[in-house]
Specification:
Helix content of chain A: over 70%
Family (chain B): Belongs to the NMT1/THI5 family.
CATH class of the largest domain in chain B: Alpha Beta
Number of strands of chain A: 2
Number of helices of chain A: 10
Radius of gyration of chain B: 23 Å
Order of helices and strands of chain A: HEEHHHHHHHHH
CATH class of the largest domain in chain A: Mainly Alpha
Largest sheet of chain A: 2 strands, antiparallel
Number of helices of chain B: 14
Protein name (chain B): Thiamine pyrimidine synthase
Radius of gyration of chain A: 23 Å
Helix content of chain B: 25-40%
Organism (chain B): Paractinoplanes durhamensis
Structural class of chain A: mainly alpha
Shape of chain A: elongated
Number of domains of chain B: 2
Pathway (chain B): Cofactor biosynthesis; thiamine diphosphate biosynthesis
Distance between the termini of chain A: 33 Å
Subunit structure (chain B): Homodimer.
Number of strands of chain B: 10
Strand content of chain A: under 5%
Oligomer: heterodimer
Structural class of chain B: alpha/beta
Strand content of chain B: 5-15%
Chain lengths: ~280, ~375
């Protein structure tokens, strides 16, 4: 109950800031030394929030469906892409983390590449991956690959830290029981890594959303919210509120995914003390 | 034992990584010559999302013109990071639609592609200014804030200014322009780049806050690079240069172009039907905007005195000359030297024109008359 109130309060503060800035901000923005450091407050750059909400109710195109339905459909589509990418990325991250924990040499050899992988710009990656669409996988799945590519990283790194977190005495105890690799992993390392895993999964969730939206934009995959953002932004000249409806959809999708990921924690963390950990 | 395990793990990871890399280079060619009644699958890479700019291809699919030729054509939409000529050169598409200067630049960097059909005979690039600014020609841009798109889309503007005696590096303030027209509407810039069939229409779909009505063509003045003599060739059909030595691909190219000609001729005569086809393809741009675009695109093709798709030597030379001599603000030219090898050929389009004529298609459109399209707010 209280949480709902806080959420509503957050929305209200955002709305107040937006409309308040529109009220006091200069329609031409504030320019200092030739650089605009406060945005324009006119209706073309910052439409009133109620204009955006009204736009949600009006048809997308004459005779078409209302914008909010189009946006919900697009969000559902992108959510599917995100979920597939998130699951694939998390699994890859888990496997890599286990391998790196188990074999020192893999950690030394692979970890730098895992980190390097995140410095490859999507601009370079997207055209490469989009070429797979239609031949070895459906086009939407190529976007999932991009989402997974961004999502596996926090899981791999966070999970590695988690698997390495048990104390030496714990590991030695397992060894004194003659517990093998698998048993040590399941009984000691996995439970110990949970507090590291969940923050990593949240990061992965956020990364998967970004990957899906950006992937849709750069490969032009149709059906999702990323594609809607770029299609609507072409109409920014004549229908500025429409752009914001798509952005609203993307924001909601992000919140929804974050919520879904944190729900994953509930069954696994119920019996655990909450432990503050720092990942990365 | 442990050593073996380590080794297998390393081997497994490296195989995984290698196979991951391998798939990227694996360019499976889909072209198999049609034998008997089976349709040959063809992929055509477009520059952008479905819109009337590509109506001819969409119509040729929709009306079955490609099927008549034994081709099963799949249209691939573009995206912000999809470069059609690269997709073509890497074998992920059989043909691609691309602007000539950009495709020539990719060609210089090693993309083996050939212009086999210059569908748009004219350039659709404008520089738009407010009428009350008094800017009506390139020379008057002097001292003004001039918007340009960059990324190789700006060279007609730079050539036009250079031709008018303006040094684009010194005499104007260059502003990187977004792909919408807000900067001009807010008077942040004095003149904005616009395509006749897209961004210019967006201006006329926007409401003037002062009057509460849409802006009209009277509010703006247009510098048309065709009239300033710095126009460059735009949308063309590109084919894979090395495959063109294969007689089967040659034949297929003629068939593809024949059906493409039919598609564009259909859209010339049935603009509204083609508009509906584009809308049915799921374009998010409104109906009046698409009809405007269809009409403007038709103007860029028709009338085609030499026949649709035939590369005019003079226009080609002008495009290449500007590409080699005009410098943008960073001092770069599109091309460093004249294109080598088979940059364009009229062999296939001429065969296609003969075939289309034999089928009763008007390939010149001498009697084509553009209509007047009324835009509605937001193009809806």
């Amino acid at each position: 109950m209280r949480r709902v109130l806080y959420v509503l309060l957050g929305v209200a503060i955002f709305a107040a800031l937006w409309e308040g800035y529109k009220l006091v901000g200069s329609p031409d923005g504030t320019v200092l030394f030739g650089v605009r450091f406060l945005p324009r407050a006119d209706d073309l750059s910052m439409p009133h929030l109620w204009t955006v909400l009204q736009r949600l109710g009006r048809p997308e195109l004459t005779g078409g469906q209302p914008v909010w339905i189009v946006i919900l459909h697009a969000c559902a589509f992108t959510f599917g892409i995100t979920a597939a990418g998130f699951v694939a990325g998390a699994l890859v991250g888990l496997v890599l983390a286990v391998l790196m924990q188990q074999f020192r040499i893999v950690e030394r050899g692979l970890l730098p590449y895992v980190i390097l992988s995140q410095t490859v710009p999507l601009v370079a990656l997207a055209p490469l991956i989009s070429g797979w669409g239609g031949t070895i996988m459906p086009p939407w799945a190529t976007v999932s690959v991009i989402a997974a590519y961004l999502a596996f990283f926090p899981v791999a790194v966070g999970m590695l830290r988690g698997l390495q977190s048990p104390t030496a005495s714990g590991v030695e105890l397992m060894r004194s029981y003659a517990a093998g690799w698998w048993r040590t992993l399941v009984k000691l390392r996995f439970p110990a890594s949970l507090p590291y895993l969940f923050p990593a999964l949240r990061l992965a969730g956020a990364a998967a959303v970004v990957g899906a939206v950006v992937g849709e934009i750069s490969t032009g995959t149709r059906g999702g919210i990323g594609r809607l953002i770029i299609e609507y932004s072409r109409e920014a000249t004549s229908d500025p509120a429409k752009v914001y409806t798509a952005m609203l959809g993307a924001a909601l999708l992000g919140l929804f995914v974050a919520g879904a990921v944190s729900l994953l924690e509930v069954p696994l963390m119920r019996h655990r003390r909450h432990v503050e950990v720092v990942t990365l | 034992m442990r050593k073996v395990r380590i080794f297998t793990a390393i081997a497994a990871t490296s195989v995984l990584m290698l196979s991951g890399c391998g798939t990227a280079d694996d360019s499976s060619t889909t072209t198999t010559p049609a034998s008997g009644g089976a349709l040959t699958p063809i992929k055509l890479q477009l520059q952008w999302f479905f819109q009337a700019q590509f109506a001819g291809y969409i119509a040729a699919v929709d009306q079955g013109f490609y099927k008549e030729q034994g081709l099963d054509v799949q249209l691939l939409e573009g995206g912000t990071d999809i470069v059609p000529q690269t997709v073509l050169a890497t074998g992920k598409a059989d043909y691609a639609v691309a602007w000539v200067p950009k495709a020539l630049a990719s060609r210089e960097q090693g993309a083996g592609i050939t212009d086999v059909g210059q569908i748009f005979g004219r350039s659709g690039t404008y520089q738009v200014a407010w009428k009350d600014s008094g800017i009506t020609s390139a020379a008057q841009l002097k001292g003004k804030k001039v918007g340009n798109w960059g990324f190789g889309n700006e060279f007609e503007l730079f050539a036009g200014m250079t031709k008018a005696g303006i040094d684009p590096g010194k005499d104007v303030t260059l502003v990187q322009q977004q792909f919408d027209m807000q900067a001009l509407l807010k008077k942040e810039i004095d003149a904005a780049q616009a395509m006749s069939y897209n961004e210019y229409a967006q201006l006329l779909e926007a409401k003037n806050p002062a009057t509460g009505k849409l802006y009209t063509a009277d509010d703006f003045s247009v510098i048309d690079w065709k009239k300033e003599g710095s126009a460059m060739l735009q949308d063309a059909v590109w084919a894979n240069e090395s495959k063109l030595s294969d007689p089967a691909y040659q034949q297929q190219t003629v068939k593809f172009l024949t059906a493409t000609i039919k598609g564009w001729a259909f859209c010339r005569d049935n603009a509204e039907k083609c508009r509906d086809m584009v809308v049915a393809k799921g374009s998010k741009l409104g109906k009046s905007h698409q009809l405007w675009q269809m009409n403007e695109v038709n103007k860029l093709i028709w009338p085609a005195t030499g026949g649709i798709g035939v590369v005019s030597d003079a226009d080609w030379k002008q495009t290449v000359d500007i590409s080699m001599t005009t410098k943008n603000q960073t001092g770069d030219t599109v091309l460093k030297k004249a294109p080598e090898g088979l940059a364009y050929t009229n062999d296939y389009i001429n065969q296609a024109i003969t075939a289309a004529k034999a089928a009763g298609v008007d390939v010149n459109g001498a009697s084509f008359a553009p209509t007047t399209v009324t835009l509605t707010e937001g193009g809806a």
